[in-house]
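The authors assume throughout that readers already know how a fold can be written as discrete tokens. Each protein is reduced to its one-letter sequence and a matching series of backbone shape codes. I therefore recommend that a typical entry be quoted early in the introduction. For illustration, here is how one protein appears when written out as sequence plus structure tokens:
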Amino acid sequence: MILNDVFNDALQECEKASKLINDTNILFNNHVESNGIAFSSEIHTCIINGAFLTLFMTLERFLENSFICYMMGQRGINGNIVKRYIFPDDEEKAINILKGTSRFADFTNRDTIIKLANNFFEFGGTYSYLNSISVDFEEMKKIRNAISHISIESERAFRGLVRTKLGSLPRNINTSSFLNTIMPNHTNTFFIHYRDVVVNTINNIAMSF
């Protein structure tokens, strides 16, 4: 794989997720109907949640694929090189090194990513950027878990996040309505905020020092 392709593909997926949110809000707010079928709140919710999962998985995939590119000695998109401590012969060996004794490397765990980066690259390469988004990263994981995991713990974590962000727990709040909420003292929704976090992360990690 080529870092430039990994970078462009990730940004395109972020754009698709943003368009999904925009389009579904327009359809829902305008009470669109077709052949007697209304664009219901259930459809609206599913699309918003799906768009956020796309966003989170895009970040996860980008982190792993860019990591492999740097392990293979590829330059950042700005032309600079990340000094590496390992020299795999091909991508398959790079993947096996990443996995170690596990079935896979968990690129949803920020601490794991940074530990691997410090082991494989000088000063952790560009992945030290993840330290600056530690709070946002964990918040996104809580939302992801609340969408994809049906558990008391994931629901509690999500509700705690909502209380922290909004100061209270609105009645009937769920992941989609939270993501569509305008942030206090801001003009953007929480979805747009997290979208921007992902895009900025992709841009910064694709650049080498």
Q: What stands out?
A: The helical segments are 3-29, 41-71, 91-99, 110-120, 134-148, 152-166, 175-179, 190-206.
